[in-house]
Design a protein that fits this description.
The complex is a heterodimer. Chain A contains 13 helices and no strands. By secondary structure, chain A is an all-alpha fold. In chain A, helix 2 runs antiparallel to helix 5 and helix 12 runs antiparallel to helix 13. Chain A folds into two domains: 266 residues, no CATH class; 70 residues, no CATH class. In chain B, a hairpin with a 7-residue loop joins strand 5 and strand 6. Classes of the chains: A mainly alpha, B alpha+beta.
């Protein structure tokens, strides 16, 4: 708590100045872009909560990790990047275009994912599977992304003497519209999956270390690719989005892998329920995102009454699974079991 | 973190590890970085009195065998007008929000007449309020340069255009160049140059004359920067 609070406080004090510059510019477009950035962030939170169907994370945890990413990691990364840039700048020159492709991933991925590590150990009972790591990783990345966008915007305004907003708008629009979900959120979601796997999977320690380290290095490599000069010539072209494609593809693969873990987790929980309550064959349709969408489409063809019953049955089954997994009181579990039987 | 009653036994260890990494990033790295000598070392020998040719500038802008400014590929793509290359390069940047002060002519190519060119130019002077003769428009950009001995320095280019109520018939435009140490806490000004030009005179110039005018200034700028670099190093 003190570690989290202390570094977030330092970051908040610094970030306040950045906000002041942005607000003082009084530029409607800039403010609108910041608002869009926040809106996109909230949309991502909603999407991830939809994916994390088994246990939606407590709001306090979500806020804590977002603040860590935006304030603590963002603040420290500013100093760390500048210093590491100087330290290795004599080996990899800035003019080569690769300096920040090396410096930023090392510092930023490590700093962001530490927010995930903290939440995993501080709120251990809220961490049930790999999906939780993806979720909290994305939240740390979201905080970092939004803070960095606002920082860049303010920095560009300041560099232009506050009189010229085009550069600020360009960089904010570029990062917000073309690359929002494909950068920090994706990187840290991938790294977070590794940490949650290490914390929750019933496998050997060696395997945990390999998976966690591998995903962390993957996140760093994707960040490095994103920062590399390979796509620099694309400038402000919509093709800029290409630099985020590898990260999104890897994230998709991680989510497919995570989905298997979620199904396995749900099956193990279902075993603690009465036999006929949640059938093994039903679980993918409850947990797997693609199967859920397919099931939802199938339901649209059903008569209204049957569709309603199916939805109620699905909700009751999920509620029963959550109640067992989260260790609710017996009377709550019994009530939910009863509900499933009613709708079945 | 908000929840205190469901913490892992590993919390103290992880918290200490996180605090240690954060503290190292915040204090340790800057401490080590402070030991790196990033100051510019400029050889004062053999100052050059004329700017390098365009061909040389594409790869490297040499100043008296002492300073080598690597130009970006963008320069090669013809995005800057002939004759304005150095100026445009000095100002052009995607990341710093350069205003396009007096000699920033990157976007001038499509403009056909001197009058239009001048209007465009004046139009840049204060962003949106040039008709009110707002006094100053400033732009800055930095560039890392590699010196002959392999060390690096940052140059700060500042361009500005001034058109004031007190002298509405004159446009002043200038360029300053400074060397910064990597920490950017201080700077050494190499050059601070201001030109004044009559609006009336500039309006009367033909397109070719206007181009020549800029070219002359361009040469003058590079001549001076060579000399000033030698002075700084002495």
């Amino acid at each position: 708590m003190w570690v989290w609070g202390g570094f977030c406080f330092l970051g908040a004090a610094d970030f306040l100045d950045v906000i002041k510059i942005s607000v003082a510019s009084g530029q409607t477009f800039g403010m609108a872009a910041i608002a869009v950035s926040l809106f996109l962030g909230i949309s991502v939170v909603w999407l991830l909560r939809w994916l994390d169907v088994l246990d939606q994370e407590p709001l306090g945890n979500v806020v804590a990790v977002v603040l860590w990413g935006g304030l603590a990691a963002g603040y420290v990364a500013g100093y760390a990047n500048e210093s590491l840039g100087i330290l290795i700048g004599s080996v990899v020159t800035e003019s080569s275009g690769w300096l920040w492709a090396i410096v930023a991933p090392i510092n930023e991925e490590l700093l962001k994912v530490m927010g995930v590590a903290l939440i995993i150990v501080a709120c251990r009972k809220d961490i049930h599977g790999v999906m939780d790591g993806v979720f909290y990783g994305a939240m740390a990345g979201l905080g970092f992304e939004v803070a960095e966008n606002i920082y860049y915007y303010a920095n560009a305004l300041q560099a232009a003497g506050g009189t010229e907003i085009n550069a600020g708008i360009d960089i904010l629009a570029l990062r917000t519209y073309y690359a929002f979900a494909s950068s920090h959120m994706a990187f840290t979601a991938i790294a977070g999956a590794g940490l949650a796997y290490a914390a929750t999977a019933s496998v050997t320690s060696t395997r945990k270390v390999i998976v966690a380290t591998g995903l962390m290095l993957t996140a760093g490599a994707l960040h490095s690719f994103w920062n590399s000069p390979i796509f620099q010539e694309l400038g402000e072209s919509p093709l800029y989005i290409l630099r985020g494609v590898p990260a999104l593809l890897v994230l998709l693969m991680v989510l497919m892998w995570v989905s298997k873990h979620e199904v396995a987790l749900a099956i193990s929980v279902a075993k603690k329920l009465p036999k006929d309550l949640v059938l093994k064959d039903e679980i993918p349709g409850l947990v797997n995102p693609l199967r859920r969408i397919v099931a939802a489409i199938k339901r649209t063809r059903m008569p209204a009454r049957e569709r309603k019953r199916q939805i109620q049955l699905r909700d009751a089954q999920l509620a029963a699974l959550r109640a067992v997994m989260l260790g609710y009181e017996k009377k709550i579990i019994d009530a939910r079991i009863k509900a499933v039987r009613v709708y079945r | 973190m908000p929840v205190e009653d469901n913490k892992s036994k590993a919390l103290p260890i992880v918290a200490i590890a996180v605090a240690a990494v954060m503290a190292f990033a915040l204090f340790g790295l800057p401490y080590f970085a402070a030991g790196v000598d990033t100051s510019a070392k400029i050889d004062t020998t053999t100052p050059v009195s004329s700017p390098a040719s365009s061909e040389e500038q594409v790869e490297c802008q040499r100043v008296g065998e002492t300073l080598c400014i690597y130009l970006e590929d963008k320069w090669k793509q013809g995005n800057v007008g002939t004759g304005f290359a150095n100026w445009s390069y000095a100002f052009s940047s995607n990341s710093t929000g350069v205003l396009g002060a007096g000699l920033y002519l990157q976007d001038l190519a499509p403009i056909v007449s001197t009058k239009e060119a001048l209007d465009w130019w004046i139009g840049q002077c204060a962003g949106y309020k040039c008709t009110e003769f707002e006094p100053v428009a400033t732009s800055t950009t930095t560039k890392t340069v590699t010196l002959h001995d392999g060390t690096q320095a940052i140059t700060l280019f500042t361009g500005y255009t001034v058109k004031s109520d007190e002298s509405p018939d004159t446009i002043q435009f200038g360029q300053s160049v400074a060397l910064l140490p990597q920490t950017q806490n201080a700077s050494v000004t190499i050059l601070d140059l201001t030109f004044g030009a009559s609006v009336e005179q500039l309006s009367a110039l033909t397109e070719a004359e206007l181009e020549q005018f800029y070219t002359d200034i361009d040469k003058y700028f590079w001549t001076l920067i060579n000399e000033r670099l030698a002075v700084v190093g002495s």
